[in-house]
């Protein structure tokens, strides 16, 4: 049984009721089949209703679910012969980012993703999935290696943000992120990015300048976390829910804004209910993406990325005048 | 309400204009916010808005900066009439833009254009922290990207003065995407072998620090500017550790190998001229 989220409480309660009736029926030998069947129908309707009408905040909760599959959970489903590679060759090894090589349907690829922990102990080791500069520099090293050997690059984005700390600043967190953006722009191999959980700010984008950018249905991607936005905009981090609603951070919103290419549908209730099935859906999306990008020349790949990002933004003109009264 | 301030689009703007001069401290005398030294405002302006006593660098508006660097009469502004929309329909955003336009008399947080610095041609972008804290939304990203493309077209160096609190929250993900957009353009500039100089001024943080500001062929900064990725308060809360007094200043970055040089304002034009001179003979 996976952990229950706030908005799922009515579902859990109904499930509990059904279970109670079932055990009552067994104990007392009273036939309650009809009652149970009717409750099960109600449950199914309630589930459909709940999961089809998730608010942005519900999705944020699903994206943060402790059991939500992470980069390392998806890798065995998606790739064979995976070998993890470590270190930036400059300072150290950052376990908040994992990267390596493997095969995707018989084709060599490089895989890189942010990695949070699944329990407290692992979270400490992986710094809660918040990379330091050496993590981004490791990622860049592996991307350059992929380019050298003409391997497509697949990035899985899942971070609350780049780590805000003294050591990260000293070692050039800004430069590490900025360098990745510029260098990813010029990669001559296909780059496919998938936001699988949380995608906060420059810390996510530093693995996110791709030819194609896809998003799992319940993941979020934003300039800042809902809590951060609330504290900046309204000086009140408890208004995170409101920020989530107004910032347009969900996959359907970002598809509409033209920021992402495909929304990868999640299994009912979220990816954590069935990682294997979710992986099959990611696999299908990756195959299609890769097939399209493989047809492009090195130059076309760079040019496509240029045109893709060049288009992003919304502005207007005031016919040579300053808009003011 | 729209009012035509520049009814006729001038090809050459003489910078700084009288209008822009109003943005410097008012009054006959000015008190330095750092050392409380009292100076004649006129003297302060003549000294490029640097305190004569403690060398505090006052913030400069975009046009003041351009006036201090670009040869008189050589500046042509780009995309002056580009303004922000409200893509997320964020409550109050348009009003805030409007009020900043009135306050600063510029349309957005960056001024771009071309001109010469001691006869060396450059394309220049100068951010203005008075407008929405210099934050980067779609217009800032687009103007900078277009300026970079102009530099590629004209085969001239690209120079940027950053002054920004980071991404523009009210444009959400689109402001984040401006980091990618300016980066793809900078990659093209770099691949053409063209020079990119970044000069970070107070403040340069967040998404601006984590994109174009940090990837110049030369990364310079003005003295004592605040430069960093994450805010000091956020860091203090995260790591519960006392931060050094000079944390995230130009001097701190220099010490940690993140900057090529810290350049006081009175040496800026001269140093930039030298760098431009050294790169003026392009290798074929």
From TrEMBL, chain A:
Q: In which pathway does it act?
A: Lipid metabolism; malonyl-CoA biosynthesis; malonyl-CoA from acetyl-CoA: step 1/1
Origin superkingdom: Bacteria
Question: PROSITE patterns attached here?
Answer: COA_CT_CTER
In this chain the CoA carboxyltransferase C-terminal domain maps to 31-292
Q: What is its EC number?
A: 2.1.3.15
MF terms in GO: acetyl-CoA carboxylase activity
Q: Where is the signal peptide?
A: none
Query: Which InterPro entries does this chain map to?
Result: Acetyl_CoA_COase_a_su, ClpP/crotonase-like_dom_sf, COA_CT_C
What are the protein's UniProt keywords? ATP-binding, Cytoplasm, Fatty acid biosynthesis, Fatty acid metabolism, Ligase, Lipid biosynthesis, Lipid metabolism, Nucleotide-binding, Transferase
Subcellular location(s) per record: Cytoplasm
Q: What is its main location?
A: cytoplasm
Name the chemical reaction catalysed here: N(6)-carboxybiotinyl-L-lysyl-[protein] + acetyl-CoA = N(6)-biotinyl-L-lysyl-[protein] + malonyl-CoA
Quaternary assembly: Acetyl-CoA carboxylase is a heterohexamer composed of biotin carboxyl carrier protein (AccB), biotin carboxylase (AccC) and two subunits each of ACCase subunit alpha (AccA) and ACCase subunit beta (AccD).
Q: Give the UniProt family note.
A: Belongs to the AccA family.
Q: What does this protein do?
A: Component of the acetyl coenzyme A carboxylase (ACC) complex. First, biotin carboxylase catalyzes the carboxylation of biotin on its carrier protein (BCCP) and then the CO(2) group is transferred by the carboxyltransferase to acetyl-CoA to form malonyl-CoA.
What's this protein's name? Answer: Acetyl-coenzyme A carboxylase carboxyl transferase subunit alpha
State the organism of origin: Fictibacillus terranigra
TrEMBL record, chain B:
So, what pathway does this thing act in? Lipid metabolism; malonyl-CoA biosynthesis; malonyl-CoA from acetyl-CoA: step 1/1
PROSITE patterns, alphabetized: COA_CT_NTER (PS50980)
Q: What chemistry does it catalyse, as a reaction equation?
A: N(6)-carboxybiotinyl-L-lysyl-[protein] + acetyl-CoA = N(6)-biotinyl-L-lysyl-[protein] + malonyl-CoA
Annotated InterPro entries: AcCoA_carboxyl_beta (IPR034733), Acetyl_CoA_COase_Trfase_b_su (IPR000438), ClpP/crotonase-like_dom_sf (IPR029045), COA_CT_N (IPR011762), Znf-ACC (IPR041010)
Q: A Pfam family matched by this chain, by name?
A: Zn_ribbon_ACC
Q: What does this protein do?
A: Component of the acetyl coenzyme A carboxylase (ACC) complex. Biotin carboxylase (BC) catalyzes the carboxylation of biotin on its carrier protein (BCCP) and then the CO(2) group is transferred by the transcarboxylase to acetyl-CoA to form malonyl-CoA.
The name on file for this protein is Acetyl-coenzyme A carboxylase carboxyl transferase subunit beta
Provide the species name. Fictibacillus terranigra
Q: Which gene encodes it?
A: accD
């Amino acid at each position: 049984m996976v952990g229950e989220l706030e908005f799922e409480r009515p579902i859990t309660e109904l499930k509990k009721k059904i279970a109670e009736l079932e055990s009552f029926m067994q104990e007392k030998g009273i036939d309650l089949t009809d009652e149970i069947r009717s409750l099960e129908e109600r449950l199914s309707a309630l589930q459909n209703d709940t999961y089809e009408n998730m608010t942005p905040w519900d999705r944020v909760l699903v994206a943060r679910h402790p059991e939500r599959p992470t980069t390392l959970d998806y890798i065995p489903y998606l790739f064979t012969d995976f070998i993890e590679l470590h270190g930036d060759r400059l300072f150290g090894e950052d376990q908040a980012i994992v990267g390596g090589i493997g095969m995707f349907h018989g084709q060599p690829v490089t895989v890189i993703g942010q990695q949070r922990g699944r329990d407290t102990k692992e979270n400490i080791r992986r710094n809660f999935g918040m990379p330091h500069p050496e993590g981004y520099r490791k990622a860049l090293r592996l991307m350059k290696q992929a380019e050298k050997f003409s391997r497509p690059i697949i990035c899985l984005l899942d971070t609350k943000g780049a780590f805000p700390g003294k050591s990260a600043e000293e070692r050039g967190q800004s430069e590490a992120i900025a360098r990745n953006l510029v260098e990813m722009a010029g990669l001559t191999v296909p780059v496919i990015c998938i936001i699988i959980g949380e995608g906060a700010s420059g810390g996510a984008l530093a693995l996110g300048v791709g030819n194609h950018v896809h998003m799992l249905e319940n993941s979020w991607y934003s300039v800042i976390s809902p809590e951060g936005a609330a504290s900046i905009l309204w000086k009140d981090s408890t208004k995170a829910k409101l920020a989530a609603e107004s910032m347009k951070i969900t996959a359907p919103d970002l598809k509409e804004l033209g920021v992402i290419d495909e929304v990868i549908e999640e299994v009912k209730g979220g990816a954590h209910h069935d990682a294997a099935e979710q992986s099959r859906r990611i696999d299908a999306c990756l195959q299609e993406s890769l097939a399209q990008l493989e047809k492009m020349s090195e130059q076309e790949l760079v040019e496509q990325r240029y045109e893709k990002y060049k288009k992003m933004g919304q502005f207007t003109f005031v016919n040579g005048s300053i808009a003011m009264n | 309400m729209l009012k035509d301030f520049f009814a006729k689009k001038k090809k050459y703007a003489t910078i700084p204009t009288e209008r822009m001069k109003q943005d410097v401290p008012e009054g006959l005398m000015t008190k330095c916010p750092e050392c409380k030294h009292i100076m004649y405002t006129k003297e302060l302006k003549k000294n490029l808005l640097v305190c004569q006593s403690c060398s505090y660098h006052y913030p400069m508006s975009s046009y003041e900066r351009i006036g201090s660097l670009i040869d008189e009469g050589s500046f042509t502004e780009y995309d002056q009439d580009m303004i922000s929309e409200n893509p997320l329909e964020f409550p109050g955003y348009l009003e805030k833009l409007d009020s900043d336009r009135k306050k600063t008399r510029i349309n957005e947080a960056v001024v771009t254009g071309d001109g010469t610095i001691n006869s060396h041609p450059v394309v220049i972008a100068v951010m203005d922290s008075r407008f929405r804290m210099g934050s980067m939304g779609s217009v800032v990203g687009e103007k900078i990207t277009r300026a970079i493309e102009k530099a590629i077209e004209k085969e001239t160096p690209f120079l940027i003065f950053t002054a920004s609190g980071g991404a523009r929250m009210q444009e959400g993900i689109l402001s984040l995407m401006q980091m990618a957009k300016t980066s793809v353009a900078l990659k093209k500039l770099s691949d053409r072998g063209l020079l990119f100089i970044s000069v970070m001024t107070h403040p340069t943080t967040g998404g601006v620090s984590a994109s174009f500001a940090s990837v110049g062929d030369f990364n310079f900064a003005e003295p004592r500017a605040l430069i960093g990725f994450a805010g000091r308060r956020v860091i203090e809360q995260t790591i519960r550790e006392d931060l050094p007094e000079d944390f995230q200043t130009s001097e701190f970055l220099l010490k940690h190998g993140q900057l090529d040089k810290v350049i006081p304002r009175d040496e800026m034009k001269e140093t930039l001229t030298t760098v431009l001179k050294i790169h003026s003979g392009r290798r074929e």
